[in-house]
Amino acid sequence: MMNLENNFLTRKEFHAGIERVLHEIATDRETQTRRWAQQKQLWDNQAVRWNEEAERWKEQNDRWNEQAERWKEQNDRWNEQAERWKEQAEHWSKQDLRWAQEDQRWEELAADRKAQDERINQRFERLEGDLQQIKLSIGALGARWGLSAEESFRSALAGILTESYGVTVQNVSFQDSDGKVFGRPDQVEMDIVVTNGICMAIEIKSSVDKQAIYLFDRKVQAYSEREGRTVNRKIVISPRVDSRAFRVAKEIGIEVFTRSDDEALFRRTEETS
Fold first, then answer.
1. I need a surface site. Which of 6, 51, 135, 239 has the fewest CB within 10 A?
2. In which band, very low, low, confident or very high, does the pLDDT at 140 lie, cut at 50, 70 and 90?
3. What is the distance between the alpha carbons of residues 133 and 124, in angstroms, rounded to a whole number?
4. What does pTM read for this prediction?
C-alpha cells in the first residue's frame, strides 16, 4: 500500500505496483488476444461462408450462363423457324394467288361447258323430237302395212280357195252383246272356211302374242255358241309368233302356221324343256 504520509513509495511498493501494472497489462493482453482470436474465428467462419456463398453464386452463375446459352440457341432456332414460316407464308400466298387464278379459269371453263351442254341438250331434244316423229311415222307406216298385208293375204287366200277348190270362205261379223270376247259389248269379226262339212276358223295377223291367241279362242267360242256350230279346226297364220303364243296355242288346240325357222325353234325349245 502507498505510504500517504510522505508521498514516497517504498521499493517493495514500487515493485508491487509494477507487478500489478504488468499483471493488468498481461491480463488485458490475454483478453485482447482471446478477443482477437474469437474475432478471427468469426472472420474465418464468415470467410468460409463467403467462400461457400461465392461458390454457390459461381455455380448459379454457371447455370445462368448455360441457361442463357440454351435460350440463345432456342432463340436462334425460333428465329430460323420464324424465317421458314415467313418463307412458307409467302409460298402459300403465291399458291393462293395461283389457286384463285385457277379457280377463275375453272369457273370460266365451267360456264363454257354449261353453255355447251345447254346447246348439246337442245340439239338432243330436237333430235329426240325428230326421232320420236320418225318412230311414230314408222309405227304408223308399219301398222298400215300390216293391216294392208293381212287384208291382201286374206283376199288372196279366199280367192284361191273359192276359185280353185270350191271352198266357202266367209267373213263373219256379229255383235257380242254379253262382252265375252273383249270384256264389253263390241263387234266381232272373223274368217270362217267351210269345206266338206268341216268348219275352220282362221285368224290372219302380221304378228301374234299369247293375248292374241286367247282373244282368237274367245272369238271362236262366241261364234260357235251363236251359230250352234262346231268349229273343227282353229288356225292362226302369221309371219311373227311369240314363243309364249306357241305354248298357249298348243294347250288350247289352236294350230299355228308361221315361218319355218320360228316353228323349228319353238319345237326345239319344247323338246329340251
1. 6
2. very low
3. 14
4. 0.43
